[in-house]
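FAQ: What does a ligand-bound record look like?

Like this one, built around shikimate-3-phosphate:
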Amino acid sequence: MNFHSVSSLSGTVTVPGDKSISHRAVMFGALAEGTTEISHFLKGADCLSTISCFRQMGISIEEQGEKILVHGKGLHGLQPPSQILDCGNSGTTTRLISGILAGQTFDTTLTGDSSIQKRPMKRIIDPLCQMGADIRSINQNDCAPLSISGRKLRGISYHSPVASAQVKSAILLAGLYAEGETRVTEPALSRNHTELMLSSFGASISSEQLTATLYPGQRLMAQSIQVPGDISSAAFFLAAGLLVPNSQIHLKHVGINPTRDGILHVFRQMGGTITMENLKTDGGEPVADLIVQSSSLHGTVIQGDIIPTLIDELPVIAAAACFAEGKTIIRDAAELKVKESNRIAVMTHNLKAMGADVEETPDGMIIHGGRPLHGTVIDSHGDHRIAMTFAIAGLAAQGETLIPDWDCVNISYPDFLTDLQSLIS
Ligand code: S3P
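The answer part, i.e. the structure of the complex:
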């Protein structure tokens, strides 16, 4: 795919449904009693991997017009799959399903694509084994494929070394099958969609600062879920609206959960004009329309507790920082190395290839902004967020930006190009 500079962007985009919330709606719907109706579900490859895993475990999931219907069979209704479960490129599918599978009465094997087979699973294997699970990394490298033998589990009180919603959620989901309370404390608060949605499905769960506690004796009841627009997808248009001159973009019905909205704080701190309209709460999740306008940006420091609230947006924030006056420092973001690609290395390499002044650090990047970028050939490393980040950089760079490995955008945003083109007059 190729991109070049544009003179303005204007119009309205309804970004696709939130990826994290779409996964959870299918998973919790499968474990609930009754039919869960999901609106604005993200039909990206990652969430389709979750659907296919649950179908393989005997859950009927239908498309009805715009909606997805999940015919749940209750906590003990899953059936043993006849084949290996394929989680594709999805870390959320792999880690959250592992938590569910740990407490079943059957054995399973799950795996995914070459990227998933390199991502760290010890972070879930360790706590789940402390709960009594039997999980083995088949290649003994702490990565998928994982073989999981269902066991009787007991609740634990776990202090997670990483602020990861996938780790927290895997443990809480195993907790649904455990005897006693299950408690997870994180070093900084990660996205809390699991806590909010489990509670709306009727689970007894409490959150206090950095600790989530799930109480025993659960039954989940089917719900009707309206998935908010994904702020991680909106992020590309927020950056594009700020960087491209003469732009104004309306983004409708975007999830602005405080555990996800770090990008709004950072872009505003950098001098970006982003306003909100129509604030409301949908199923416990705050949503709003966002309006972004072209702005002159200046550098900033991004570190500490805000990092988990913008972890997936750091690639596009780093690209925007190249167009800002002065220095931007990103710290405490070593987690970026274990995402769909090593996002610190890949971002640094690609931004440099476009002429930016960027240094890689062990836990982030230092970006000296203000140098004009020029188009070049970009290797996305099959990482959807890298591909879309460089599409946006290409809109503000001189010359042509070519992204040959483009199909990966289907992971989280299959209509990205159509939505982008609708803003170009
Ligand atoms: C996710 C949590 C984050 C995020 C990922 C989705 C989730 O990962 O990067 O895209 O749905 O729970 P970690 O929890 O591992 O940081």
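Follow-up question: can I read anything off the structure? Yes, for example: The mean pLDDT is 98.
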